Amino acid sequence: MAGTFRFELVSPERVLMTIDADQVVVPGSDGDFTVLAGHVPVISTLRPGVLDVAAAGIRKRLFVKSGFADVDPSRLTVLAEKAYDVDELSAATIAQELKTAEAELAAAKDDEAKRMADTLVTELRQLSPRAA
Fold first, then answer.
1. Which one of 46, 81, 102, 132 has the largest count of C-beta atoms within 10 Å of its C-beta?
2. pLDDT by residue for the chain (132 residues), tens digit each?
3. CB-based contacts of 87: which residues, under 8 Å, 6+ apart?
C-alpha cells in the first residue's frame, strides 16, 4: 500500500475537512490529476468540478467552484472559493448556483472568464437532479 497523506479542504470561512487520505482526484485547470502519498510538489489552480476523496475505504465527493491546490509528498491542501458535499447538495442550491453561473457567463468579458463560467455551468448541470 502506498500510504496516506494529509488532505485539507479550506474555504475562506473555515477548514471544511481534514483527513488522512489514500487518494484524491483533483479538478485542475489543466485537467484532473490524482494525488497519492509521495506526490511531487505541485501548485495548481482549480476549475469547477468534483474532488474525489478516498480514505480508509470511504469515498467522498466534493464539488468545488474554483480555487488552488497545493501538493507536497505528505499533504494536499485545497483552498476553495466554495465547496459542497455532492451527497448533501440540494436541488435548490444547485439551481441557485446555476443561475449565478449563467449570469457570470453572460457577463464574462474575456476568454478565461468565459471558459471558467462555461465549465461551471456544465459541471452544475451534470450535478442537477434533472440531468440524472
1. 46
2. 468 999 999 999 899 999 999 999 999 999 999 999 999 999 999 999 999 999 998 999 999 989 999 999 999 999 999 899 998 888 888 888 889 889 988 888 998 888 888 988 888 988 876 444
3. 61
pTM of this prediction?
Answer: 0.84
62 shares a domain with 22: yes
Beta strands in 11-117 (DSSP E): 15-21, 23-28, 31-35, 42-46, 49-55, 58-64, 67-72, 75-80, 83-85
- Residue 9, helix vs strand vs coil: strand
Q: Whats the size of the chain, residue-wise?
A: 132
Work out how many domains the chain is built from and give that number.
2
